[in-house]
């Protein structure tokens, strides 16, 4: 599909500087631009590339002033990075714009679904499921009994949603996501043999949540595991039973959150973080990558390390950590000198 500079400027509410009829059919990085591609300039260190890129159109800020002759058509916008992100979303919607029901699929007679749905082959829709409008369900997706899927959701191939779970509007779940598997609930007897504790709760995911590939969100033992609106989850994250994650919190890959921990709003959690169970993490908390959290954290704390320390304390301590070998050597030398003095 081809778009002209004039059409793209209309989408982005920008203005064309150059040929309004210049056409593009693909996107590219500015340093790798080829004829017929659209690129953007947001970081000033990439400015030299705009004079030699082979891309046909570039999105730039309104105040960009070329220092040399330039042949590429420019689309001037308020913020080039945000405009290009908007264009990526538009491109993605066009690319993923599938509709209809493929065969074979299984849809329970008691299930109901809205308008403009796409249901890929080999998918399973259980009893009493409710699916909203404009939902895209890719092949090999399983939706268990009594689930609710809101409007404009996208479930990529291989997503599994166990029974009784609820997804709000505009939830994106990438391949391999598992929602509603049993929480890790086992009770040992006097001899140490474990018995399974039934997990009879569910998972509630609110609006505008993105869930990366391979992430697991366990159902509650009782009640609900809750992911609040606007949460962004990276790939391969484990969220245990009865966890609650506050609005607009973002969590990077390979993080594990143990049962019944409550995380506040607007938190930022780095990759490979481990958080033990039954904690309360405040709002706007920042946890650096590979930290181990074993205590409650107050609003606006920034921590690092395992066990995690205040970020500034960790950096001060690290100076001493790396000097430990030389400090030990100095102590040994002093002890030898003391022995010789005797």
UniProtKB/TrEMBL annotation:
Task: Give the residues annotated as active site.
Answer: 241 (proton acceptor)
Which GO terms label this protein's molecular function in UniProt?
N-acyltransferase activity; UDP-3-O-[(3R)-3-hydroxyacyl]-glucosamine N-acyltransferase activity
Record has Lipid biosynthesis as a keyword: yes
> Where does this protein act, in terms of pathway?
Bacterial outer membrane biogenesis; LPS lipid A biosynthesis
Q: Which GO terms describe its cellular component?
A: membrane
InterPro entries (alphabetical): Hexapep (IPR001451), LpxD (IPR007691), Trimer_LpxA-like_sf (IPR011004), UDP_GlcNAc_AcTrfase_non-rep (IPR020573)
Domain of life per record: Bacteria
- Domain (UDP-3-O-[3-hydroxymyristoyl] glucosamine N-acyltransferase non-repeat region) spans 22-89
Look up the EC number in the record and give it. Answer: 2.3.1.191
Q: Which family does it belong to?
A: Belongs to the transferase hexapeptide repeat family. LpxD subfamily.
Subunit structure, per the record? Answer: Homotrimer.
Q: What protein name applies here?
A: UDP-3-O-acylglucosamine N-acyltransferase
Q: What is the lineage of its organism?
A: Bacteria, Pseudomonadati, Bacteroidota, Flavobacteriia, Flavobacteriales
**Gene coding for it:** lpxD
